[in-house]
Amino acid sequence: MPANKNAGKHPSYKKRNMSEEAREHKQEYDKKFSAKPEQVEKRVESNTARRKAKANGKDIKGKDYDHAVGGFVKTATNRGRKEKSRLKK
């Protein structure tokens, strides 16, 4: 797969006042994280479920596949869910 030429140029980086160094660090981290076997497995599962749902004629526009629930939920719900790893201590 070709390198993402737009990586690090998203408007949200400016909004967050990220320095060039911070942006590069985030790109490195994201690349390593995406390559982890667990993440690859989740992505494969999600892509398979999406393909299957579309083939069956389900309307999944604006929805993400949720690994915890095992089905499609609204994007905001899936990305906003509180997990133990994200809770402040």
Annotation keywords:
2 strands; two-stranded antiparallel sheet; globular; 89 residues
Give an overview in words:
This protein is mainly α. It is 51% helix and 9% strand. Strands 1-2 form a two-stranded antiparallel sheet.
Architecture blueprint of SSEs:
Blueprint: H1 11-15, H2 20-34, H3 37-55, E1 63-66, E2 71-74, H4 75-80
Antiparallel strand pairs: 1-2
Structural class given helices, strands, pairing? mainly alpha
The number of helical elements comes to 4
Residue stretches low in confidence (pLDDT < 50, at least 5 long) are: none
- The ordered string of helix (H) and strand (E) elements is HHHEEH
Proportion of β residues?
Answer: 5-15%
The main β sheet shows up as: 2 strands, antiparallel
Gross morphology: globular
The largest beta-sheet arranges its strands as 1-2
Distance between the termini: 39 Å
By DSSP, the count of extended strands is 2
- Provide the residue-averaged pLDDT: 85
Question: Summed up, what is this model?
Answer:
The chain is mainly alpha-helical.
